[in-house]
Design a protein that fits this description.
The longest helix is centred in the middle third of the chain and has 20 residues, at 99-118. The termini are close together. Helix 8 (168-174) runs parallel beside helix 9 (209-219). It contains ten helices and ten strands. The protein is globular and about 50 Å long. It is an alpha/beta fold and 248 residues long.
């Protein structure tokens, strides 16, 4: 069974954090994944994790944080026991619009990750759907990002892959050796869960988890992060998703 983590972003609308961490421990989680909004108070976050016997093997860091203060980001990661530093996103205004732009972005990303890698940590990129829309020249931005460095790992978001119209299994197989973790995310049937932006609890949507899990195991992926971008009930999502992944 892979290491199963809960992306704390799922519970951003259900404060306080201490209650979330306690709830996750009670449900049986051992690991969580952090995000940038939690890094403003590292000491409090560290105390909360320790009090609830939770590890944070991975965390999302903003690209500008790494570029502006790589040493500080590495120090934060080491203090929290983070093994994997993942850049999760760039806003629409910053996204390249052609192949050359994405090549340059990949190089920028690889350069930002070098201090992280030099510190002995894993560095990677987490996709959304926009990296899976071809450039005018016919190239896939996610490929161009990955091409920037063989040491740049990927945290493949399986939900966004499907939303972009692609087969998650095909992308798992394509980048099997580069997957440091995956976001295990499900999608509700068309026209349902509109109050939750069309996402579903893991195992309760349209994803073919038997095929996906088999491909992940074949690829040797041992770190699953469950996520739902906008659950109306984070406790329900956490409980049902953990049960689903444990049954894969």
């Amino acid at each position: 069974m892979p290491r199963i983590a809960y992306q704390l972003y799922c519970s951003r609308n259900f404060p306080p954090l201490g209650d979330t961490l306690r709830k996750l421990t009670e449900l049986g989680y051992k690991n969580v994944e952090g995000f940038g909004g939690l890094l403003a108070d590292v000491d409090s976050l560290k105390s909360g994790l320790e009090a609830n016997n939770l590890a944070m093997p991975s965390c999302h860091f903003a690209l500008d944080m790494l570029e502006q203060d790589a040493a500080g980001a590495v120090a934060t990661a080491k203090k929290l026991g983070i093994e994997k530093v993942i850049v999760p996103y760039i806003g629409p205004e910053d996204r390249p619009t052609d192949t050359q732009g994405w090549i340059a972005f990949g190089q920028r990303l690889a350069a930002a990750g070098k201090p992280v890698q030099d510190a002995g940590l894993v560095f990677g990129w987490h996709n959304h759907a926009f990296e899976l829309d071809a450039t005018p020249e016919g190239d896939m931005p996610l490929d161009l990002i990955a091409d920037a460095s063989p040491d740049l790992m990927l945290e493949l978001d399986l939900g966004w892959v499907r939303v972009a119209g692609h087969d998650p299994v095909a992308w798992i197989e394509k980048y099997a050796s580069r997957l440091t973790a995956v976001h295990v995310k499900d999608i509700a049937p068309d026209g349902t869960a509109t109050d939750e932006d069309g996402w579903a609890d893991v195992g309760h949507g349209i994803q073919d988890w038997a095929a996906i899990h088999a491909a992940l195991q074949q690829a040797g992926v041992d770190h699953y992060v469950v996520e739902h971008d906008n659950p109306s009930d984070d406790a329900r999502f956490a409980r049902r998703s953990l049960a689903a992944v444990q049954s894969f």
